[in-house]
Amino acid sequence: MLKKLLVANRGEIAVRIIRAARALGIPTVAACSEADADSLAARQADEVRIIGPARAERSYLNAEALLQAARDSGADSVHSGYGFLSENADFAEAVTAAGLVFVGPDARTIRRMGDKAEARRTAMAAGVPVVPGSPGELEDVEAALRCAETVGYPLLVKASAGGGGRGIRIAHDAGELRREFPIAQREAQAAFGSGAVYLERFIRQARHIEVQILGDGQRAVHLFERECSLQRRRQKVFEEAPSAALSEAQREALCASAVRLAQSLGYRGAGTLEYLFDSHSGEFFFIEMNTRIQVEHPVSEMVTGIDLVQAMLRIAGGEPLALRQEDIRLNGAALEMRINAEDPARNFFPCPGTVEGLGWPQGDGVRVDSHLYPGYRVPPYYDSLLAKIIVHGKDREEAFARAQKALDETELSGMATTLSLHCWLLAEPRVRAAQFDTGTLETWLAERAAALEV
Ligand code: ADP
Ligand code: ADP
Ligand code: MG
């Protein structure tokens, strides 16, 4: 078992990790920037280390400062959550080289799957279908134009090192590809430190469905799927488990392919394999793997009753996976609503402020993951996620009813938030009927904006 855990992250996920560690009796050290010295994570952890100024480059992205905090506090392990250094192979390597445990897969696996072109090749080798595209990175625009002949238009130019919905550009024809390709390369270089890009056919009206897996290096299991098709700017807004679009046979095939890929990697820790699902043909295609805990992990916890973060800590502590696949059952349905400090009426402009009134929903099947407290000043330097409201019901209908009740009970004043967007989504018949794909929410938002302007 781990002896003392450094939490190398902030916000709701830092609080989430501290809760899991506490449940296992592992003392925690919150690594905080100066801007987060009064955060809920700082209040809840057993110890606090200030790792640097507000700017993430000098704190949450500063590997040396984090390692120093681990050494100074006598921590033996590091959990990096999501975002920041969570998928940085060099960081994982540095943690290990310092004699500490990195809670997650080994650096080699992170590097391999963090390179999205390499991840595609790995998936193909494991017999997992991928989106038709270039076999690997493309040197120049001429190579891209040649490759595009077989891939077909429209297609996406994607950054091999991309993430967070960024580093993806669309081209509808050769002329557009010729224009977009060098822009994509330059942007990828600036944003991710690597200009490597590859091509993928654009799958129209696809649904984003991903599979949660857990592995101990020897054996891997799946915890079924999550659907995250409701997206804005390729970032998830509303997620659910299970997907209402899959038949039982499709679910089985999808989850089995994810386990196959995880097994082929000898995967250790929690991970997610993301796919696009074509509900017309019933085909699914692997797009990428996230070698970390994901924002939307709670919906899987709600439908399986398994605590993923505790499982990560146990595996990192050297325990073999206690779960057998046949023991993992899908129970009911769960929804997650991401509440961000963004104003839906002003094109989701970020608007952090000070929390005034705060009241969370209660009752059966309701869970809130948040780092807010009354009087808390949301710092403007980081991601705008304030809270995740997660609900569980015996079926999708009950989950929606509970979600509605949960939003009615929520009080969050002091800043504009995306709560109103979720009220609208819950009332939208096409959401209730699960009739959506990854492009739907953007279309609805554009229609709504146009309607408001008349
Ligand atoms: P999830 O599937 O867990 O939502 P995301 O890819 O949306 O994963 O990333 C989770 C968080 O990490 C988001 O808040 C996002 O802003 C951030 N993030 C992920 N990858 C990157 C990246 N390469 N650059 C910047 N931010 C990132
Ligand atoms: P990131 O690393 O930023 O999360 P992903 O490769 O997971 O990037 O893609 C993010 C989102 O972009 C997907 O959920 C989907 O909505 C869209 N997308 C990605 N690849 C394709 C594709 N080939 N066709 C259609 N949409 C895609
Ligand atoms: Mg993704």
UniProtKB/TrEMBL annotation:
Pathway: Lipid metabolism; malonyl-CoA biosynthesis; malonyl-CoA from acetyl-CoA: step 1/1. InterPro entries: ACC_Biotin_Carboxylase, ATP-grasp, BC-like_N, Biotin_carboxylation_dom, Biotin_COase_C, CPAse_ATP-bd, PreATP-grasp_dom_sf, Rudment_hybrid_motif. Keywords: ATP-binding, Biotin, Ligase, Nucleotide-binding. It is an enzyme of class 6 (ligase). It catalyses: N(6)-biotinyl-L-lysyl-[protein] + hydrogencarbonate + ATP = N(6)-carboxybiotinyl-L-lysyl-[protein] + ADP + phosphate + H(+). One of its GO terms (molecular function) is ATP binding. Its EC number is 6.3.4.14. Residues 120-317 form the ATP-grasp domain. The keyword Coiled coil does not apply. It comes from the Bacteria. The keyword Electron transport does not apply. Gene3D superfamilies: ATP-grasp fold, B domain (3.30.470.20). Residues 1-446 form the Biotin carboxylation domain. PANTHER family: BIOTIN CARBOXYLASE, CHLOROPLASTIC, PYRUVATE CARBOXYLASE SUBUNIT A. This protein is a component of the acetyl coenzyme A carboxylase complex; first, biotin carboxylase catalyzes the carboxylation of the carrier protein and then the transcarboxylase transfers the carboxyl group to form malonyl-CoA. Acetyl-CoA carboxylase is a heterohexamer of biotin carboxyl carrier protein, biotin carboxylase and the two subunits of carboxyl transferase in a 2:2 complex. This is Biotin carboxylase. It comes from Pseudomonas delhiensis. The lineage of its organism: Bacteria, Pseudomonadati, Pseudomonadota, Gammaproteobacteria, Pseudomonadales.
